[in-house]
UniProtKB/TrEMBL annotation, chain A:
This is Vitamin B12 dependent methionine synthase activation subunit. It comes from the Bacteria. Residues 137-192 form the AdoMet activation domain. It holds the Pfam family Met_synt_B12.
TrEMBL record, chain B:
Pfam families: B12-binding (PF02310), B12-binding_2 (PF02607), Pterin_bind (PF00809), S-methyl_trans (PF02574). InterPro entries: Cbl-bd_cap, Cobalamin-bd, HCY_dom, Met_Synthase/Corrinoid, MetH_bac, Pterin-binding_dom. This is Methionine synthase. Residues 317-572 form the Pterin-binding domain. It comes from Faecalicatena faecalis. Residues 1-288 form the Hcy-binding domain. Residues 676-798 form the B12-binding domain. Catalyzes the transfer of a methyl group from methyl-cobalamin to homocysteine, yielding enzyme-bound cob(I)alamin and methionine. Subsequently, remethylates the cofactor using methyltetrahydrofolate.
């Protein structure tokens, strides 16, 4: 089973349980439909970074107060701001499917999340390769809304990336991203390689989450 | 006037502004428009350089100056716009122009927000934001409005309407295409062209996103479809990141070289966008100035469009799906009365899946507010289908409302040869664009002869011309009369059809199925007549794409007439078509019980077995003996962690299929279907994620609740109003994020105040019991089944 399918299954809340064949069939249908609908686009820009205190940071001209982001970025010399989206057609496909088959819609939703994550990983690998030539190493990406990194930083981050114009990614008054299958993130770049980084879902303090990766079997 | 020169001689725009300001110290994320106030000399100096480089049209530094994007406490929007326009004029005074006339363009860029239904910005709100700016711009003395860098046709429409309705200035429009020739929101070149020509802008084209070379193929595509003067304003190449800076690396010489080719291909106005400098513009003008531009060539496409694609009539025959229409449809009427939008949207989706190219939309019923319903259905349909819509109404207000908010260039059904009809409909077409169906009837009725009908068609075309509506935007419906009362009806119609197409050179449509009214086995006649009509030049048939007979005619005709390359569509449709076999599971287990089918989530089997069972069992017995136990079993499994969400929902869908069979049987037998308790569901204001709410909805409906689904982004007031009006005892609210739980709390506060007896259950990703208690909810549903159990306990005493 490929990684994306595994991720989709995790998002659907199966944990370590076996997945029935009908759901697996829906998953492969969803990935096929998403291949047509998804219009993947991404943008990144590099900014200066200053760590003023453990929980006070400066990215370009923007000051951020966040302990968890401070921890993630400690020792970095530069910052990559990153945005990615699957486009509006995926939202339309999910809305449309919700009207005709809710089970398919739920699976589609999970698969779209998996496609987006994989796309972000690919983009990040590419950025890492480019910055690697300058001797820089990337940290795991960190998005507004993770830990105590306030969701409101979505606004300056998206403005600094100009991502409405560049990739069609916008935000509602409630800081929700539209198209909904989108990501913005801060990626630290440092001169020293650090291993053993926890990343993604494992960073979160909610240890009993049913969607958690590598959850112990209960 | 610039319009006297446009399209006759080559005109030159200026180049990039933002990139030059950045070089002077503008920070990423900082609003460039503030520099009009803080660094006036820098801005004027840039304008001056462009003017001296030879630019005829100079953009005021107002790209992001709109109320939605520009929030700066230190100065008003009006001041910014006025000062910015003034800077161009000042630069023109200072520059060496040798008497050249310089035109100041008010620059309008996007708001940075996505419009509803995909985002949260209301169309009229976007319109108001643009309206404010264009009025300030005209007052400040701008000579034209340049709407640019647009990547969403809907926002573009709001901006163009605002400019056209509130100023007398010429409107130039450019959009940002990618290398595949698409806007960020998916529109292709024909779709954008159809929209802009319909709105009657003065010039259209492409800017930003690409370098000059990459724009060449897009330009060719625009030239194929557009009859307007074309603007081309490339970036100085594709942006690259070097040492943390965005750089554009096409040199002035190279830029100028490619721009020559762009002019030779057919551009009428050229300039530059990001990364271009006065040097680029100078080099460009030096090389291009002497080139004679190509004369404008009118194109004859009859195009309608949606947000994503255009449909051109004339290549084969197109299918206009007729099913979104209450006439003669009991269920559809009921859906309209009960405001069951999902039902209506599903009719649209089904027709698209069956092969429709355009969807007719008729929601007229005597006792509903047709204008409001039309607006809502048109908007919502555009969130689930990319097919162009055909606005079908006799109510002029509903027609205007729909044309205004429609994202694209619509088909309009219809205008007739009656003077009154033409007086009402043509002004709307003139303003919003569209392709209108002209019915060949007038004050004296429908002529009996083909001659008479052709004559009325001519009159319609002539009257339309007075409004500047071209022949290509009219399609004629020569009308068909049933042969049961008019024995010669089909022959007259076919003759008229052929003559309208050949003599008048316009496209044609027909509501095909009228031909068989009053006869038995109508599909037999309809399908044969449909083929004959296509053979006689029918550009689009208004038919039911779910009718197999009609679709057989359609595919066969296109295969026979070499309109279906290699019979590709025909083969895809009919290869391997065998008599419908029972489904695999059905064949193996003809003994399968209904409860098993539901537990396994087998929709088709559940449907089939229920049909079988209903021959010998009463519907209510089937529900009690099979459906409810199966649903309970699955529900329990979900609770204990042996059944997961997709399976739960597959079972729900299977049960729904079974219920629908039984509902039809009960309705047909005239027995009263059990009165269901209503539950209101809504995703709260500010929140646009509705999948959780939709899951709860499907399950509640299975457990015999009637769900009043208010949708997403629902204001508290509407929820309260619905609760009071419908006497609701339970409301379910959904919110995804901490930022929207605030409006959940507010909704609960208002509900508790005005409908204290109504209980509120809440759910959503960020909620937990503690949070739910804090905002005053009566119940927190940690998953969808919990909400069902709570509703049962509360309302059904279970």
């Amino acid at each position: 089973m490929d990684q994306m399918t595994k991720e989709a299954i995790r998002y659907l809340g199966y944990g370590k349980h076996a997945v029935d064949e009908k759901t697996l069939a829906l998953i492969s249908d969803s990935f096929r439909n998403l291949e047509d609908a998804a219009d993947k686009r991404s943008i990144y820009r590099i900014f200066d970074f200053q760590q003023i205190a453990d929980d006070r940071l400066k990215i370009g001209e923007t000051e951020v107060q966040s302990k968890s982001l401070g921890r993630n970025l400690r020792g970095c010399s530069g910052i990559v701001l990153f945005g990615a989206t699957l486009g509006t057609a995926v939202d339309r496909l999910i809305t449309r499917t919700s009207l005709t088959d809710m089970a398919a819609a739920v699976v589609l939703q999970a698969c779209a999340a998996a496609v987006l994550e994989e796309y972000c990983d690919e983009c990040q690998a590419e950025i890492g390769r480019i910055l690697g030539q300058e001797g820089l190493y990337l940290r795991p990406r960190f998005s507004p809304g993770y830990g105590d990194f306030d969701i409101c930083f979505q606004e300056p981050l998206m403005r600094m990336l100009d991502c409405a114009k560049t990739i069609g990614l916008t935000m509602t008054d409630s800081y929700m991203m539209t198209p909904t299958k989108s990501v913005t993130a801060v990626i630290g770049a440092s001169k020293t390689k650090e291993n053993c980084h926890t990343k993604g879902c494992e960073v979160c303090d909610k240890k009993d989450c049913i969607y958690r990766r590598n959850v112990p079997v209960t | 006037m610039i319009l006297d020169r446009l399209g006759k001689e080559l005109l030159f725009f200026d180049g990039g502004m933002g990139t030059l300001l950045q070089a002077e110290g503008l920070k990423p994320g900082e609003l460039p428009e503030t520099w009009n106030m803080t660094h006036p000399e820098t801005v004027i100096e840039i304008h001056r350089k462009y003017i001296e480089a030879g630019s005829d049209i100079v953009l005021a530094n107002t790209f992001g100056a709109n109320a939605l994007k520009f929030h700066d406490k230190s100065c008003s929007l009006k001041d910014i716009v006025t000062v910015a326009v003034g800077h161009v004029k000042e630069a023109a005074r200072r520059a060496e122009t040798n008497g050249r006339r310089i035109y100041t363009a008010l620059d309008i860029g996007p708001t940075g927000k996505l419009l509803k239904p995909m985002g949260d910005l209301d169309f009229e709100e976007a319109y108001q934001a643009f309206r404010e700016v264009v009025k300030y711009g005209e007052e400040a003395g701008a000579d034209l409005i340049h709407i640019e860098t647009m990547s969403d046709t809907y926002e573009l429409k709001a901006a163009v309407l605002a400019a056209k309705e509130n100023t007398d200035l010429p409107v130039f429009v450019t959009t940002i295409f990618d290398e595949r020739g698409k806007l960020l929101t998916g529109a292709d070149v024909p779709a954008v062209t159809a929209l802009l020509e319909g709105l009657r802008v003065d010039a259209m084209g492409i800017n930003c996103g690409l370098g000059p070379r990459q724009m060449l193929p897009i330009l060719e595509e625009i030239l194929k479809y557009s009859s307007l003067p074309i603007i081309v304003k490339p970036n100085a190449g594709l942006p690259k990141q070097v040492d943390g800076e965005t750089v554009y690396d096409v040199s002035p010489e190279e830029f100028a070289f490619v721009m020559q080719e762009i002019v030779r291909k057919g551009a009428a106005v050229i300039g530059g966008c990001c990364g271009t400098t006065p040097e680029h513009i100078h080099a460009m003008i030096k090389l291009c100035r002497g080139i004679k531009i190509k004369p404008l060539e009118p194109k004859e496409w009859t195009m309608v469009s949606s947000y994503g694609q255009a449909v051109c009539l004339g290549e084969g025959s197109k299918i206009i799906g007729e099913r979104i229409n209450p006439t003669g449809k009991k269920k559809f009427k009921q859906a309209l009365k009960e405001h069951d939008l999902d039902y209506i949207l599903r009719e649209g989706i089904t027709q698209q899946d069956k092969g429709a190219h355009i969807l007719d939309v008729n929601v007229g019923l005597p006792d509903i507010d047709e204008t409001a319903m039309m607006r809502e259905v048109v908007t919502e349909l555009q969130s689930v289908t990319n097919l162009p819509l055909q606005i079908d109404t006799v109510d002029v207000n509903a027609m205007e409302a729909a044309l205004r908010i429609y994202n694209g260039k619509a088909m309009v059904n219809s205008v007739s040869g009656k003077q009154e009809s033409m007086d009402a409909v043509f002004p709307l077409l003139q303003k919003y664009g569209g392709v209108v169906i002209g019915l060949t009837l007038d004050e004296k009725g429908i002529p009996e002869t083909a001659d008479g009908r052709v004559k009325i068609a001519e009159q319609i075309i002539a009257e339309a011309a007075k409004y500047g509506i071209q022949k290509k935007d009219i399609v004629i419906d020569v009308l068909c009369m049933t042969i049961s009362s008019e024995p010669d009806g089909a022959r007259v119609t076919l003759e008229a059809l052929k003559r309208v197409r050949e003599e008048l050179g316009v496209h044609t449509v027909l509501g095909v199925s009228n031909i068989s009214f009053g006869l038995p086995s109508r599909p037999v006649i309809n399908a044969a007549f449909y083929t004959m009509a296509m053979q006689n030049g029918l550009s689009a048939g208004i038919i039911n794409p779910s009718s197999e007979e009609m679709m057989k005619s359609y595919y066969a005709f296109h295969a026979l007439m070499n309109l279906d390359q290699n019979c590709e569509h025909y083969i895809a449709q009919y290869a391997g078509a065998a008599p419908a076999a029972p489904s695999a599971t059905g064949a193996a287990g003809s003994q399968m019980q209904l409860d098993t089918a539901i537990e396994k989530g087998l929709k088709e089997d559940a449907h089939r077995i229920t049909m079988e069972l209903a021959k010998t069992k009463a519907p209510l017995d089937i529900i009690n003996e099979y459906l409810i136990p199966a649903l309970d079993h699955v529900g329990k499994g979900f609770e204990t962690g042996t059944v997961f969400l997709p399976q739960l929902l597959m079972s729900a869908e299977a049960a729904k299929a079974a219920f629908s069979v039984l509902k039809d049987i009960l309705a047909a037998s005239g027995s009263e279907v059990e009165k269901k308790e209503k539950v209101v569901l809504a995703t709260v204001k500010g929140d646009i994620h509705d999948i959780g709410k939709n899951i709860v909805k499907v399950l509640l409906e299975n457990y015999s609740f009637e769900v009043v689904d208010l949708g997403k982004d629902v204001p508290p007031e509407l929820i309260v109003e619905t609760v009071l009006k419908e006497n609701i005892r339970l409301v379910g609210l959904s919110a995804l994020m901490t930022t929207t739980v605030v409006s959940m709390e507010e909704t609960i506060r208002q509900l508790k105040k005005q409908a204290p007896d109504c209980k509120v259950m809440v759910g959503g990703a960020v909620l937990n019991q503690e949070y739910a208690d804090m905002i005053g909810a009566d119940f927190y549903g940690k998953d969808a089944m919990q909400s069902v159990y709570y509703a049962q306990k509360l309302l059904q005493g279970k």
